Amino acid sequence: MSNDPTLLAALAKAIEDTAEGCKGIVTAGEHGVNVGFRGRLTTTVKKGKDGESRATVKIPWTKVCALLVQRAGVTREATLKAIRDALTGEGDLDVLPDYDRLTKELADSLPKLKRNGQFKLKDTSLELEIG
Q1: How confident is the model at residue 32, as a pLDDT?
Q2: What are the φ/ψ torsions at residue 50 (nearest 5 degrees)?
């Protein structure tokens, strides 16, 4: 078998897409698998350009909130009420009129994360002989 990265990635994606419906019917527990198979994969691989994304999705918000609370000297009850109000949309949420600007400044100051381009298969046929 070739170790061509395009071939291996296409095969993995085709098997993943084919097996998607099976995951829900497998029973809970650990299942050993040791089976030989032969097969043919016919497809067209389309790989998008790699890029960058903002690091805001990686911010550990629980830790950030804990540090803010600790350094602001806010009491536990007031902190929990503020967090609950923010999550439920209740209370005075107009206290941060510059929220969008502050969020943009924070996001712009963080390093960018590398993101792999989208990987798609087109006109895929996967035939497996298991046994």
Answers
A1: 92
A2: -70, 155
What is the model's pTM? Answer: 0.50
Residue 44, helix vs strand vs coil? strand
**14: exposed, middle or buried (C-beta count within 10 Å: 0-12, 13-18, 19+)?**
buried
Chain centroid offset of residue 54 CA: 13
Do residues 18 and 113 touch, judged by C-beta distance below 8 A? no
Contact predicate 54/114, CB 8 Å:
no
pLDDT-wise least confident of 22-36, 63-77, 106-120: 63-77
| Confidence category of residue 3, pLDDT binned at 50, 70, 90 | confident
Please, which residues have CB within 8 angstroms of residue 17's CB and are 6 or more apart in sequence?
121, 124
C-alpha atoms less than 13 angstroms from C-alpha of 65 in its C-beta half-sphere: 10
Residue type, 1: M
